[in-house]
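Milestone 3.1: sequence recovery, worked example.
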């Protein structure tokens, strides 16, 4: 029984180390040919958003909003790929299941 507990503790430690490493990595996504660029951590936390002046048309804020959403989604897709690469089989055990919120162990 002690062996199983040790394995569980080791897996939890590996998961925490992987999440810490993911939190330090940054990935970007863009939309509109680079008019909007979003940067997220490997855990999906938005840390930077760049909007080109050309994208900021006061008469068309809906397009700008769509570009921001698309850039953030693209960055989050990159973060998910990074999570799968980094966590591998640990991801399923940690409850990540493709979603980034709820990263608790």
């Amino acid at each position: 029984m002690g062996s199983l507990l040790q394995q569980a503790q080791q897996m939890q430690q590996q998961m925490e180390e992987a999440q810490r490493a993911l939190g330090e990595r940054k990935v970007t996504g863009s939309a509109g040919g680079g008019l909007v660029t979003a940067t997220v951590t490997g855990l999906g936390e938005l840390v930077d958003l760049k909007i080109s002046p050309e994208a900021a048309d006061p008469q068309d804020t809906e397009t700008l909003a769509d570009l921001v959403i698309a850039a953030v989604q693209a960055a989050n897709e990159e973060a998910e790929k990074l999570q799968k690469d980094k966590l591998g089989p640990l991801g399923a055990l940690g409850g990540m299941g493709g979603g980034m919120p709820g990263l608790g162990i």
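Residues 80 and 99 are 8 Å apart (CA to CA). The helical segments are 2-24, 61-87, 89-93.
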